[in-house]
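in:
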């Protein structure tokens, strides 16, 4: 009994002493310069495995195992700090400097939104999550767990992925890299294959849905994808990466940084090579990506940063959708692709893509004084390449049963050798069928400058200018005569009946010149510490000019058009109110007019049918948002309504004198509205659960009927009818749900599981074709996909290494991500692409 009493007293004494001597170390971790909280930062008691992570507001509280010591505070992408403590210690606000030189200035140019301050719906993905989840996926697929976003691989070629935001395609989603817009200047499209290595050099990727925080006038009807690349690392070091995956995928690369030297100079270089056979038949690919950043700090006032990055790539494509029945009847199933074959024993593409589009920029950061700075970026981009295809007699189709005399077996690959034999037999008559490339080269120059000044402690003014000059160079060229002696082309007015050889231009040869001058301004007002508001305005003039060397004689003045100018602009404003430490609400409103694109001005690819009064598209957007932050839970709710009025619709007709004319048809309007929810719940220090839901109602607003079109002599030449009222906007999932888990087994070991469910997807169609009343577009089957990724870090001799494994579509679900509506809007008539089955990727990284 005495021994039992002594044991209990000793136990109580030990517990009491542990309580007395256990110390609490607390603080708040923020990003230097912006004071943005850094959730998930690691706080470790030095020399132990005792640690915690910061909450959603950057706060932490650590029970130290000793009465004094040091804590090490670290966060990926930032320089770590070691801070001493003694007794119960409140370290206050701890600022972590970015490990990348000049990143803060780039963020100013790029209009990066701040959580719980900038009144827009925003989601940010850090480089660590991109590295963990991306693997061999398409770069935009990292966004598929973001509310309001629908991403597909399209036909499945390397870099052919497509992203839609709130029901708007890439033409109406602004993509910016370091604040520089990259949407095509003529048509607004974005080709992700041009940026095949972007995932390797991205520091953060931020989606700003709806209006967005960008100050320049960009086509962000659906939203903005804001990509911030790495600058150069402050500390010397680098890494070597390698990865392998399904269907022959392999990648290897290296990165090295000098670190910030005593003379203020720093450099980072990175290069990677990627290749594979592709999940889909006939989509072999190879690419080399690179990144260079050179930075120099001259004094406290001036910094210069030069960067260049790009990817030279080529890949086979699956351009042509097929009936669902075709995939089922083909032996290759969802891997089936009709756009390739064999020629002289080598894989040959009927459809492919090859391109190289380096982006080169020189940034100057100038701190005039402690309140005012000017940040400028001068940039150039020289694009070369295009897409392959056929010219002449189309021998590549197949019958309903899959048979074709030009294919090897039912639904088989193309027999290019047979086509070559026929061309060779024609001799001096030339080739019937050839392979060609549609080239879309360009030269793009731009200057973006931003002045930021603190008018007082509460008001910040930003103004700037945006200049762009773009020349698109468009032509077709012969790439393979397929056994023939030449190809006869009669499309060149200056050289009719031209016997074209490999490398010669055929079919068309024209240039598109686009100029852009924009001015913008934004005033931010911190009414109180918890109430922030802003108002912004932008003005732009877009100019178009076209040169056509094929349709017009060199002596014809119509070969080169005049320059046509179109005014656009925007005004937007919003406010955010932090009710307390947990709750905030925001609202924003905006209206902008977007100039019609190049093809809406020069109709039917000609210089003598010019729509010089093309109507602006008009967009009005409203949004309400609510945010909640606590130690365990971060959640957001957004309600939005976007009115897209006067979508470009043009009727063309012939005048009595034989010339062509056009009329702009107004009233083609759509309404995009919905609710978005996302949350992260920190169940324990090891486990966090994230989820999202997006429920949209996107419809065409009203019919356009009995619109009469008259010629110059007031003769009725056409009556336009578009029956689109309440027809659903197509080509994106109007309903998405997502749920995921992130479990940390230790500081360097993580397991991530994601599930995304997509529903209410309608097959794509052109509203211009809805000339008679009909049913809604075909509603595609709903589908859900599971993805899993795991990473483990460890010491490898003197180096730090990590291994990462990823599996996408874990349960090998068969699904249809894209479809083109067919006759009667049924599953039997729709042309579709079948999605990828289960894929995997294994990667290794060695840091030095």
């Amino acid at each position: 009994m005495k021994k039992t009493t002594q044991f209990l007293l000793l136990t109580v004494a030990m517990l009491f002493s542990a309580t007395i001597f256990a110390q609490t170390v607390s603080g708040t971790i923020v990003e230097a310069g912006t004071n943005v909280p850094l959730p998930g930062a690691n706080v470790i008691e030095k020399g132990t495995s005792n640690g915690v992570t910061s909450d959603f507001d950057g706060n932490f509280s650590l029970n130290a195992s000793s009465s004094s010591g040091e804590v090490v505070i670290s966060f990926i992408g930032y320089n770590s700090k070691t801070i001493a403590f003694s007794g119960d210690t409140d370290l206050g606000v701890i600022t972590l400097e970015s490990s990348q030189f000049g990143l803060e200035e780039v963020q100013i140019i790029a209009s990066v939104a701040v959580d719980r301050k900038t009144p827009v719906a925003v989601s940010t993905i850090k480089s660590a999550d991109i590295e963990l989840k991306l693997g061999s996926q398409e770069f935009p697929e990292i966004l598929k767990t973001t509310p309001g976003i629908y991403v597909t691989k399209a036909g499945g070629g390397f870099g052919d992925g497509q992203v839609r935001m709130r029901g708007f395609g890439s033409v109406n989603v602004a993509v910016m890299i370091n604040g520089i817009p990259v949407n095509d200047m003529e048509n607004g499209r974005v080709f992700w294959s041009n940026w095949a290595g972007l995932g390797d050099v991205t520091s953060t990727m931020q989606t700003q849905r709806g209006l967005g925080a960008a100050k320049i006038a960009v086509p962000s009807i659906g939203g903005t994808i804001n990509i911030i690349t790495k600058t150069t690392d402050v500390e010397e070091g680098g890494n070597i990466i390698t990865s392998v995956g399904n269907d022959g995928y392999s990648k290897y690369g290296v990165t090295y940084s000098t670190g910030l030297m005593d003379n203020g100079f720093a450099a980072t270089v990175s290069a990677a090579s990627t290749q594979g056979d592709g999940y889909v038949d006939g989509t072999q690919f190879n690419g080399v990506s690179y990144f260079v950043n050179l930075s120099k700090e001259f004094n406290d006032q001036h910094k210069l940063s030069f960067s260049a990055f790009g990817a030279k790539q080529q890949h086979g494509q699956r351009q042509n959708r097929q009936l669902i029945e075709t995939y089922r009847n083909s032996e290759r199933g969802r891997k089936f692709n009709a756009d390739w074959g064999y020629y002289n024993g080598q894989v040959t593409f009927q459809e492919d893509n090859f391109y190289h589009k380096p982006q080169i920029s020189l940034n100057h950061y100038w701190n005039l004084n402690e309140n005012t700075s000017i940040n400028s970026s001068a940039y150039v981009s020289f694009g070369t390449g295009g897409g392959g295809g056929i010219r002449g007699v189309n021998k590549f189709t197949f019958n309903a049963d899959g048979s074709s005399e030009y294919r090897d077996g039912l639904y088989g690959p193309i027999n290019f050798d047979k086509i070559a034999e026929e061309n060779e037999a024609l001799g001096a008559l030339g080739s019937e069928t050839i392979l060609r490339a549609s080239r879309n080269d360009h030269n793009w120059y731009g200057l973006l400058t931003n002045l930021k000044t603190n008018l007082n402690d509460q008001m910040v003014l930003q103004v700037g200018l945006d200049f762009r000059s773009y020349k698109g160079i468009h032509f077709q060229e012969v790439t393979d005569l397929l056994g023939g002696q030449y190809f006869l082309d009669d499309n060149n007015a200056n050289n009719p009946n031209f016997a074209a050889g490999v490398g010669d231009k055929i079919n068309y040869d024209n240039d598109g010149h686009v100029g852009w001058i924009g001015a913008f301004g934004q005033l931010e007002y911190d009414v109180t510490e918890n109430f922030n508001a802003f108002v912004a305005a932008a003005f732009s003039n877009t100019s178009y000019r076209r040169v056509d060397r094929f349709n017009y004689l060199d002596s014809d003045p119509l070969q080169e058009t005049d320059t046509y100018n179109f005014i656009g602009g925007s005004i937007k404003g919003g406010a955010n109110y932090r009710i307390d430490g947990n709750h905030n609400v925001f609202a924003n409103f905006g209206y902008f007019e977007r100039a019609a694109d190049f093809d809406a001005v020069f109709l039917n690819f000609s210089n003598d049918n010019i729509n010089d009064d093309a109507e602006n598209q008009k967009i009005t957007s409203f949004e309400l948002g609510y945010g909640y932050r606590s130690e365990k839970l971060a959640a957001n709710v957004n309600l939005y309504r976007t009115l897209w009025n006067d979508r470009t619709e043009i009727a063309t007709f012939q005048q009595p004198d034989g010339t062509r004319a056009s009329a702009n048809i107004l009233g083609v309007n759509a309404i995009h509205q919905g609710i978005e929810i996302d949350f992260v719940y920190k169940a324990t220090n090891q486990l966090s659960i994230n989820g999202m839901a997006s429920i949209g109602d996107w419809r065409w607003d009203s019919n356009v009927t009995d619109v009469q079109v008259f010629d110059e002599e007031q003769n009725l030449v056409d009556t336009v009818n578009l029956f689109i009222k309440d027809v659903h906007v197509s080509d994106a999932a109007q309903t998405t749900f997502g749920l995921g888990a992130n479990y940390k087994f230790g500081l360097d070991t993580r397991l991530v599981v994601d599930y995304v469910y997509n529903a209410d997807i309608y097959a794509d169609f052109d509203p211009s074709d809805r000339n008679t009343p009909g049913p809604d577009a075909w509603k595609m089957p709903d589908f859900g996909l599971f993805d899993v990724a795991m990473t483990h870090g460890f010491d490898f001799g003197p180096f730090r290494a990590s291994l990462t494994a990823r599996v996408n579509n874990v349960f090998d679900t068969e699904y249809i991500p894209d479809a083109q509506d067919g006759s009667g809007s049924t599953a039997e008539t729709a042309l579709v692409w079948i999605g990828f089955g289960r894929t995997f990727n294994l990667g290794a990284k060695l840091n030095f």
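note: The two ends are 61 Å apart (CA to CA).
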